Amino acid sequence: MQKIQQKEALIGVIGLGYAGLPLVLRFLEAGFKVRGFDTDYKKIAKLAKGQVYIRHIPSSKINKFIKTKSFEPTNDFSRLNEPDCLLICVPTPLTVSKEPDLTYIINTTDQIARHLKRGQIISLESTTYPGTTEEILLPKLEKSGLRVGHDFFLVFSPEREDPGNVKFTLKNIPKVVGGITPRCGEIGKALYQQVVDQVITVSSARSAELTKLLENIYRAVNIALVNELKMLSDRMDIDIWEVIEAASTKPFGFTPFYPGPGLGGHCIPVDPFYLAWKAKQFDFTNRFIELAGEVNTSIPYYVVSKISDALNGRGKSVKHSKILILGVAYKKDIDDIRESPALKIMELLIEKGAQVLYNDPYIPRLHKMRRYDFGMASLKLSEKLLSQMDAVVIVTDHTVYDYSWIVKYASLIIDTRNATKGITQGRKKIIKA
């Protein structure tokens, strides 16, 4: 506790991705020394040179801490006994059958258990189902012979990172902490109080785990609602975007959510399935949550059907059509493609025989992923490219796109984000999806 309060504690962050790297930077800015761990040697090599691979984090911010040796990235996990505080920010994806894949958490915990030292605090930040910290991490760590709450401390504190959001950052977003024991919670609170403005403690790690799921399931369910209404409105020839805008004028009792091509990012598409899987262990079925998951999962198929209908209306089939995807990031103005609906849409179109191309100013190349391997590079937008396409599909509404210009030169636009709102010239070319 004293080392934390005097900022003498060495911080270790495991997993240097979209959640881990901002956490590293926040602790460095607060005056701590940080050691970063990752299995990806390419990431380690870049960071060691002061280079950053996440667009919204300037390399200059990390470079100065590399030069002063306040930050050291490494892939040597035998050094896990050096930090006083270990923060776990590893992926928690789903399997193909939509079940939790805790491989990264389990492997990381095994590594920590081999090198666990007396006095360390371990904080799991990766999104997961209630009970993970207590049921998976705790038994592995206690095999060392050290006792939780006495010899080491274990908490769950969910990340609330929103890439690209300049208004809400890690510093001013309240941090939730739940400890395995009351003493664990106290140490966890003291740690995060050094780097965030407000720390909210809950009674247990389980409560903290469910807090994170509730936040994202709330969004997933409401997005499913408007996505379903979007499909109904399409049949009724009503503009759902106009309806949402009108409903938003009510000053109470309504929060606007917006439809799109499907859910993206690491949390919202994944979290509902984590809770639904865990609920079955208690003979409980989350029908509401599972239905929302099914609706959101179906949206890329709906978008492809709208593309097919639009082409058919022009006497063309999807097969052999040239289709340009605009934006493959999961949301606008970022370089993150995790769980992006664009990837599923591209896969479905390719399966139907389309020639699929893409442009994204923030993602120059699609590298091999767990589920996809397109081997594509982003094409430069030009009048010639747009005019050669049978259809242009707006999947991610980056603000750098000149939508009036795109509409002018494209022969057919499928707009999944209402990005062409307000454009009157060439309106007949635009199909909402």
Biggest beta sheet attributes? 8 strands, mixed
Order of helices and strands: HEHEHHEEHEHEEHEHHHHEHEHEHEE
Radius of gyration: 23 Å
Helical stretch tally: 14
Q: Ranges with pLDDT <50 over ≥5 residues?
A: none
CATH superfamily label of the largest domain: NAD(P)-binding Rossmann-like Domain
Question: Strand content of the residues, in percent?
Answer: 5-15%
Give the oligomeric state of the chains in this entry, treating copies of one chain as homo and distinct chains as hetero: single chain
Number of domains: 2
CATH topology of the largest domain: Rossmann fold
Distance between the termini: 54 Å
Q: Given the helix and strand composition, which structural class is it?
A: alpha/beta
Under the CATH scheme, the architecture of the largest domain is 3-Layer(aba) Sandwich
Averaged pLDDT, please?
94
Number of strands: 13
Instruction: Give the proportion of residues in helices.
Output: 25-40%
Question: Would you kindly provide a brief summary of this structure?
Answer:
By secondary structure, this protein is an alpha/beta fold. It has helices at residues 2-5, 20-29, 41-48, 59-67, 103-115, 132-142, 182-193, 205-236, 240-247, 271-279, 287-312, 341-351, 383-388, 403-409; strands at residues 10-14, 33-37, 71-74, 85-88, 121-124, 153-156, 175-179, 199-202, 322-326, 355-359, 391-394, 413-415, 430-432. It folds into 2 domains: 2-203, Rossmann fold (3-Layer(aba) Sandwich); 219-432, Rossmann fold.
